[in-house]
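Lab notebook: predicted structure, single chain.

Context: the supervisor wants predicted structures on file for every construct in the current expression panel, including those that have not yet been purified. This is the next one on the list. No modifications to the sequence; it matches the entry in the shared construct table.
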Amino acid sequence: MITILEQEMYSLIGSQFEKNYIVSYEVPLLNSRKKIDVLCLNKNYHKKRNIELIAIEAKVKDRKKVLYQAFTRLSCVDKVYIAIYEKHISDEFLNCSTINKYSIGVMSVNSKAKIIKKAKKSNLLIPSRKERIINNLLDNLD
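Prediction complete. Output recorded below exactly as produced.
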């Protein structure tokens, strides 16, 4: 029996990043109706040349859908994580070719979220897409 909803996972995920990042939830993805579940922007973004942007896509158990969502975010952010309810994470999933080939990180979520596989910088990043997301995010923070 599943005891958590996807939206309930967001704050648990955000708590893993809020020390060093501004954390936002359900952020619009460019000119789309789609949203990034959790988006993290490093807190000292105004002092850095290289602003780090991290997207986390969460699902309770739909691993195929979350893999697709994570893959589509690789062109917009520096790093991407998938967050899954811990009972639905298997070794087979962690060794998935998409996760490994594109250096997507994995988080498990239950009463708290924890990183079980660190994400690496995306090699599919398109800087102009990242910049548009940052600008939209900053406009909404004011």
